[in-house]
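[audit] Reproducing an earlier prediction to check determinism. Same input, same settings, fresh worker. If the tokens differ from the archived copy the diff job will pick it up downstream; this log only records the rerun itself.
[audit] input (188 residues):
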Amino acid sequence: MSASIRPGSAGADYSEAVTIDATSTRIFYAISSVEGLRSWWTPLVSGSTDPGGDLTFEFDGLDESIVMHVDEAIMPTFVGWTCLANSGHPEWIGTRPTFRIKKTLPRGCVLDFRHIGLTRDLRCYRQCERGWHHFLASITAYSESGQGTPFGTYRSGEPSPEGDTVLPDRAVATSPVGHSPNPVGPAY
């Protein structure tokens, strides 16, 4: 994996920039389609990825769900959401995760992720920082190879976003059941 991650500045909204060896179209598909979102964040995604639509994210084994309103989806450079509900972290309500894709090389891009409103003064910041760090690496892996590590599908020996290290006897397959092993979408 060729990812490099630069954390955002202290005191500001959470942000990371990730270098991904994939086309902007592949990265856009990962963040703008239900199948893509299932392959890097959580297999339990439903709703509409169209601007004006709402997406619901659920997490197997947790009594938690997140609802995101799709504010913008501009192919292949930008996706912006507003959090309408988060049963695990209500402080997310009204925050705005944004994904900006910048082409850098013939097949390389930088994904600038920013979670507007997720700041260090929020109680959940540390846990969310670990989670986003994991899931941005998952977007990278999915965009580059077709196999991400969505919630519940951590590789043996790697820490989960919750901070636990997955032991070999607890490791599960990295491709959700019922999904093809390489669901990256069209190779543009």
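[audit] rerun output stored. Observation attached for the diff report: Residues 11 and 120 are 6 Å apart (CA to CA).
[audit] end
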